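Bumping with the actual sequence this time:
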Amino acid sequence: METPLITGVFALLLITISLLQPLARRLGLAPSVLLAMVGTLIGITATYLLYTPHTDAFNTIANVFVHPPLNSEMILYIFLPILLFQTSLTLDIRRIFEDIAPILVMAVVAVLVATAFIGFALYPLSGVSLLACLLLGAMVATTDPIAVVAIFRDIGAPARLGRIVEGESLLNDAAAIVIFVILLDMLTGEQALTAAEALIAIGRSFAGGIIVGALLARIAISLLPLMRDLPLAQVTLSLALPYGTFVLSDQFADVSAVVAVVSAGTVFNLYGPARIQPSSWDFLHAVWEQISFWAASLIFLLAAILVPRFVDGFTPIDILLLFVVIVAALAARAVVIYGLLPVLTTLGIGQSVNKKFKTVILWGGMRGAVTLTLALSVSEHALLSAEVSGFVTKLATGFVLFTLLVYGTSLKPLIRLLGLDQLNPRDEALRSHYLALALSDVRHEIAEAADSYHIAPKVTGSVLKDYEQRTAEAAAETNKMEELSDWDRVRIGLIALADREQQLVLEHFHDKTISGRSVSSFLTLTGRTGDLTRSDGRAGYNKAVRQPLKFGLGFRIAQMLQRRLRIARPLAIRLADRFEFLLVYRILADELIDFNNRRVRPLLGNRVADILHDTLCIRQDETIQAIDALRLQYPDYADALESQFLRKVGVRLEETVYDEAKEQMLIGTELHQDLVRDVERTRRECHKRPKLDLGLKTRELVSAHPLFTDLPKKQQNAIRRKMRPQFATPGEHLIRKGDRGDAAYFIASGAVEVRAPTHTVRLGRGDVFGEIALMTGGRRSADVYALGYCQLLSLRAQDFKALMEQHKELRDHVVSLAEKRQLMNTDQEISEMEDPVVPVFATKPETELEAEEATLQEDLPPDGSEDAEPEVPCNASDNPPEDHAEASESTEVEVDAIEAAEAAEAAEAAEAAEAGNAPEAETGASTATKKETASA
């Protein structure tokens, strides 16, 4: 074939693809459905022109379509890596992990179920081997989510449904291809595996693909900073990554190339934004979207052109077998959707999915280009018999055409039948009210513009009259807002706040005041906030916004590394991340309060706006308390981060001034570029986060501790060798009542709370706790919690006893401290009686110490009360503290009447307090700090 002819055919295909897009929109069809129709029509026409005896004029061009210069392997290698990688880039990976259980069920489990259902249903009727039937089942188990996701977006379906469908398609492509390759090798005799060996091979292929893809992606990400100001080079590197991963995995590593590319795309999506500029990341996404569009359209069109060749020789028995495939595939999908997904919901692993949406997902299981490409590879396989090859290709192609022509064309009517394309009464009422306000504002702006441009009143009047009429019609519909319950109004307002917060995060990201490493976390948080608010209302909103204030698994692991292995760097990084996150989180809360007053209040009314204001104030107060707890421990680092944020704002403003000057022709292009280069250098400096020093060096902690300050250096060194520095987070359960005593703790900084059965005592810097169990050999008699971030020195039981015996001066220090605190506690109220955990050290036998402790417990009053915690008012509120408290109380009364979920929120708050995130625990740190001098 001549190269010019092939090039011309390629151009013709591109023209066809471009023209089909507006046609598909006009006809209301998914583009993939129209591409399949047109591609099949091109294939039929080309076959007729090539083999008709009436003319040979079109043989040359028809032969290009009937026998394209691309085989199945070339199609897979050229197009599949691009499609898989681009899908990985567009997915919100962190949100995908939240629904990973239903996605894995819909992907991996559904592929296995579909393969088994179809294979065993065909085997008694087909006349071919069971392996051939299972091979066909694996080929048609992949789904094409493009049409379903596009329709979900059109009707405003919950975002998580789109994520489930996209995640399912991404992973089931990988699972189906892995199973297909193994079954094909077994069918052709290249491998002889038992069922158990096949499962092991699948697992090895999956695991190996994940490792190879992640490793190569990390290497590519490490190279991105070298191309910081070269977006074209960054895009080129990202294009090389999927191709290199695919070839290396398939030809050399002997793992799943599909899984490796998906893994590479996922890792690149997770960590790539932190390594390049936001504008460069947007440019990379735009280029990849265009490349993916070309690849998806071309592979679909090319595969569809081959359909006439695949279905050649279709017989009545093939129609019966195709019917069996359709029924078995639908049954397998129904079993997963209606059988397994509810089980996950019951177990609390995944959120529930509405039955109507389950029906759409069931009917939207269309098959696409991947299945047709696999059919092409089977048709070209030399080791397969003609009977098996024809059986597989005919049924796979027929099934794809059925799903596209039947499912694809009937999906939108089904959605209309289920009423999923209609606004619910709440949204309809909100639309009318918002439209009336918006049209009124537009009318006012038009009147001002007409006056400014000196347009004649008679011309202006006709335009304004039209807007007056539309405003009146919308206002007439706003009485529907009165039908909404206050619960619905609050939910509408919270959804608006969640959506606005996501927009604010993107604005900060584009203004480069939020780093790339933080923006993904914020977008994940705002997306989860919106989802939970839509499903659970105010309780869901509060649950979502409180979640980031807790300490996650990563933080706990970093803390364990510091305590067990004395590796402090991961903990320092986590603390620095938390500090930066909380500062931006506070700024977002301030901006949301302003948005609520400016935009939400006119829309939903003062009563609902006040409830939203109070909700935001509670969130802001909890954030500020979390920041203050950190600031007390690391004030210099807090100042450095805030200074860095202001410098980022300054750089952004400076860049804006230069851009405006260039647009107004005040400066030339060369001068503008020179100024921008200076701005970029400054920006790079601003994005270098200051290093957080935990201050956990044992020498400094021991020498600065009040108990050891006056001791000679020699004795301090002896003590230091036995001490182990330990970092504690707010609310952390340091000692549990009833446990065996294994260590004593000296407080170097921070504060803790000792919760005895009858009262509570707070200890601060210079105090010691946990030693009574070591002295008596008994169990812990109280629980101890960290009130803020604490730096402790822990001493093991045998070392503690030896230290008390060897250093009389230190023992005297501790005895003196305990006596002073006993005297202080005696003068205080019942709630601050002496702490039974910290006794007066004396050289008495342990039995006598136990007896004294028992006597002390008997003498304690039967009840007590904790110190009252000071309430922190919302900084954004104009009310004084007492007014804010009254407003908050009255608002809470309203919310109680609105939403029965308050009880659940109270239980959640108690759980948060147990986990160490309650405001009282963090506020207590400052209170305890004020008592340090008295305690010492």
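The tokens above came from a reply further down the thread. The beta strands are 724-728, 733-735, 743-749, 752-755, 760-763, 768-769, 783-786, 790-796.
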